[in-house]
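User: I'm new to structure prediction. If I give you an amino acid sequence, what do you actually give back? Let's try with this one:
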Amino acid sequence: MKRSLIAIALLAALPVAAQQDFSKVEVKTQKLNDSTYMLTGAGGNLGVSIGEDAVFVVDDQYAPMAPKIQAAIAALSPKPVKFILNTHWHGDHTGGNEVFGKAGAIIVAHENVRKRMGSEQFIALFNSKVPAAPKAALPVVTFSTDVAFQLNGEEIRGLHVPRAHTDGDTIVYFVKGDILHMGDTFFNNMYPFIDGSSGGTPEGIVAAADKALAMSTDKTQIIPGHGPMATKADLKAYRDMLDTVSGRVKQMIKDGKKLEDIKAASAQVTAGYEDKFGKGFIKGDKFAEMLAMGYLKP
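Assistant: Good question. You get back a string of structure tokens that encode the predicted 3D arrangement of the chain. For your 298 residues, that looks like this:
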């Protein structure tokens, strides 16, 4: 059985070569409209805008995937990548930064992404250290709230959502195309990873889903950080699951339950959602523990 790509993404402290044979990974391209595409491979889903102005890319997976991503983009446009917008700092979304940055791309992200990439990080849930990224991989343009690009006949808005998956998350809206890239605030048909060590919170991830839902219509195409292309209905189902399961954990804490009690009662926490959301990397017991850790923080 193949190992989960999301498992690989989150065990970033391990040597890449020990995690995955990237030579076997194929980058697949899905056309969303005449100028916008979703690319999949190993790591987070990419968004790509091409046109007469520039090639604009949302996230860039692992470093070993960069040549394959470059080839996939070259099949769409002869222009070099001019902008990379990172949705957050994790290596399965920023690993290609160094390669693209050295090739001339301008890397853009929320200011907390640069801060976290620029120093060693620790992911408590997996007891793993992540070393600082090289200088060439760091964002050179940062923002605190929002950023906008006017490219290829499109307005591309990067909107910071605080303390969701991490403390540096950005969701990206292609206004004319009505396409929304959620980064890892949205794992389609899976329980999400909430990185509390990086400032992520259960409340923030629900708020990010609410913000995206308010921007969406039934026609909006939604690129999740992981999983297949989604609709507003998919995002609504995910948001409602988050709200319900989080509510159960909060009630348990209110009733005096401790972390070990909640872990032992994880089947009760995720009841009714295991069939739909429990088949990803984060299993129900780990998700219940993650939520409890988030709410029990001092």
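You can read the tokens as a compact description of the fold. Here is one thing that stands out. The CA atoms of residues 249 and 292 lie 6 Å apart.
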